[in-house]
Amino acid sequence: MARTRAERLVRTLLESAGVAVDGPARHDIQVHNPALYPRIVRHGSLGLGEAYMDG
Question: Which residues contact 37 (CB under 8 A, 6 or more apart)?
Fold first, then answer.
């Protein structure tokens, strides 16, 4: 599946902080819904936190 611009941006930023998407480490994040990426781009850390709270 092709990655969107938002997904590529978020993955790049996370990787620069040593965090992998769907990686094996305890600090890596697991993404179950690709709608997360544009939400993070639009709303930053608040969007990430709200997405976490939404499940």
Answer: 4, 6, 7, 9, 10, 31
